[in-house]
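Co-fold these.
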Amino acid sequence: MDFLNAIVALTNFVMIPAVAYGSQLALGALGVTLIYSILRFSNFAHGDTMAFGTMITILVTWAFQSWGIGFGPLPTALLALPFGIMATMALMLVTDRTVYRFYRAQKAKPVVFVMVSLGVMFMMNGLVRFIIGPGDQRFTDGERFIIKARAFKEMTGLSEGLAIKTTQGITVVTAIVVVALLFWFLNKTRTGKSMRAYSDNEDLALLSGINPERVVMYTWLIVATLATIAGVLYGLDKSFKPFTYFQLLLPIFAAAIVGGLGSPQGAIAGGFIIAFSEVTITYAWKKVLGYLMPENMGPDGLVQLLSTDYKFAVSFAILIIVLLFKPTGLFKGKSV
Amino acid sequence: MTDTIKHSLMFAAVALLILLEGLTDWSFFSGSWNSSLVILNMGLISAIMALGVNLQWGFAGLFNVGVMGFTALGGLAVVLTATPPTPGAWSAGGPGIVMAMVMGALTVVAAVTVTRFLPRGGLRALLILLILAVGFVIYRALFDPSVEAIEAINPALEGNIGGLGWPVILSWPVGGLLAAGAAWLIGKTALGLRSDYLAIATLGIAEIVIAVLKNEDWLSRGVKNVVGLPRPVPFEVDLQNDPAYVEWFAGFGLDPVLGSTLYVKLGYAFLFTLVLLILLWMAQMALKSPWGRMMRAIRDNEVAARAMGKNVTKRHLQIFVLGSAICGIAGAMMTTLDGQLTPGTYNPLRFTFLIWVMVIVGGSGNNFGAVLGGFLIWFLWIKVEPMSLELITLLTSGLGENSGLRAHLMENAAHMRLFTMGLILLLVLRFSPRGLIPEK
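Predicted complex below.
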């Protein structure tokens, strides 16, 4: 019984949050990795792209709520999501036209692109704060839980409860669907194949008649979709705050690099590696160990390896270890 | 018009802006000499930070986005050197913390040694994991009780290890040293790698430094802040109570309050100018020396420099440490100016990316450009807020007093400064990528 309790506690406090967080990071890292493989730079504006998409989704959600439109037990934000994605797509295309295309034509060095993306980051950050303000916004509605802790206890007779939030369920399901669609697109469609060809060898791709501007456009559209979905899922699960989204940049980059920059599989694996390490290292293991260890032998302290505020340190440490031992990442990304 | 005249005019224009801030209250100027001097002082500090970043980016092409971390380490140095020691803190927890640190260092050294000398394989991985796990447990066992002991001492006011009680000016070079040490560690691991990896690594280390400052209460009192740091200049109150000074201020037609605040700010400005001039002179000498030429040669063609027998990684490490040390000095000066260390206020947009805007706008690779950029961008950073407020007032004047949109726009006008900075950066990168004062 204690063993079962320990497993339930572990699932409730570690596995489920980490899976949800990992899915969000994976979606974010996929965007970073796609930009890296097609446009060949690290996009520092990615966190703020996520914030922009989420902000539009929140505004549309509020409009829907005020009109009395709901989505039953699911959050209204899911209905608003397509609008957020479209607005972000428009923004990405405009940014590419006005900013990035000039440097692409010049064949500027990657570090110049990074610098430019800093400027874009500033502007997007300012825009988001200007429109919605710097504060915390919650926009989750609908049913809060799929399984409630008390219902689970009554059902199983265990003393540990297991709760699954609706947002966590939605996150995982959406992530699976989005990733499946993305891989289908990259592997089966003509455009997807031309994107991969362009990423593998730009000159050969040009020789075989692939239009680079089209590839770049599709990349931005996909990145806008991924970023908005990732941002909205994160916002539903936790809350929306422009600065938090900016800070997500670090774990997202860590995930992309750990998996191997430029490798979509790597981005997903990296997202989960980062999420699981962050959650397990900052989780207080007292409860789980208390069930597993014999009576009277349970730990006195919280058995928390690091306090939760050090979660950045965790993703950073993993990043450094991977960079030192396997600089191309676990899935053999590319290096420019 | 020669370049020298053009560049002098640019400096004169920025100086005029700062003077106008004190002279007139037209439009977005405030007409207060205090405000003008505040801008000047932070401008001096920003110029020093820009000098440090310019050393790394302009001379060597290193992309460091961890300026915030080095700045914060400088701030920590002020607390650790200049504040009076907390009575009993060292005897309560000092030895334990030192032992824990030594233990941690030993663990890392042991792990590195095992990595170096054992062949690759499962055994090595297992051994490293074991060393790290055992080391961590011992570290925490030594560390935790000492921290508790220190934090228990008068937690309302102290609860941290305290400082050495040295004069506060000495904490500036110490800040530089602290930042240099951190830069050495990060450079050692990340410099041999690709350029954007260094960027991400520095971004990470900056966040970690801030996390440490926020959470290690025994060191920096965390988010409880350290207030009342010692100052290199007299306190305003003391001046106001000193008849000699009051009379002296009256000679200028100033009342004691205004006179004393200006006097103190001018004192800071004098000290900061001194530091800026010394660092600027050093950076100029470095740029003109064979060393500076070598750095720029490495930046422009690493492969060729390597072929000429230059140790590129070592030179990069060197300049990375130097540039970060300058940021550390500036950070210590800023904390001294503020009179308090507030780890909660460090924000990468303000402390890292804004400095980058200064360097790019001023002209990367040119020390004078970086200094000019520091002053100009700092002035704009402060003044964009009133400017955008005026602009919005003007644009929405047709909307009427009670318009919700107008209220919302007015409320959020402050956030226009980020947008403007991004716009300036993009415009400069696009139309004048070499900056206001280009590299020679």
